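User: Run a structure prediction on this.
Assistant: Running it now.
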Amino acid sequence: LGTAAKNFFRTFRNEVSSLGERAGSKIEEGDVAIGGRFGRVVRLPQRFLLAVDDAFRTLVVHGEVNAHAYRFAKMEGLTEGTVKFDMRMAELAADRNSKAWARALEIGDEVLFTERPHPETWTGKAFGEALSLRRAVPGVRYLIPFLTAPFNIFRLAIRKDNQSDFYQWFH
């Protein structure tokens, strides 16, 4: 909980994720239109959203890192409760480039609806078109400020409702 709180305040202050570039975001374009102190005040809602996302992502990712470190140590044939097992788990959890961290960050993006759709899928193509439209048409970015989360919620709804005609149409 302490790390989540630290990441909340760090992200709120810096306006970027504390978990680095690998962490997804609900903000598709990170450009700053209004600079200075006034801009930071204008961006308070965005900064708060990013900070809350980062705090929850920290909780999810840290739990998932430990769960995946446990699973990977078991898959490597180590016996639970031994010093070797505990050391291997600690090693995987400490290495931010480990497969446990990579998988945990993916799950964090999925849970927080910040994963980018794969460009070759129908949702990825639709997402790319919507993003292009938003960039091309003046003012649309203010009418549709977020795309990533709504697309992911829509995608999840279709995936969960695999009996509907809508699902069959897209698959």
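The two ends are 41 Å apart (CA to CA).
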